[in-house]
Amino acid sequence: MAKKKIIILPKRKSLRIHRQLFTLNEEENNALNRYIIKYKVQNKSKFIRETLMIAIIRKFEEDHPTLFD
Do residues 56 and 63 touch, judged by C-beta distance below 8 A? Predict the structure, then answer.
């Protein structure tokens, strides 16, 4: 019987060690839960993290300094 190859995955360079906690009111929580159910989001944390970071990066791109303003 042949031996199985062992696949070694590279270590993640950026570990998530900084926890951020926020609270939602009932309406916000219901809207988030409806969205997650409607669009079949598999990973809630990943969805919130990616959505937040996309909004932040867009804002940085909009506010970048220009030479002639």
Answer: no
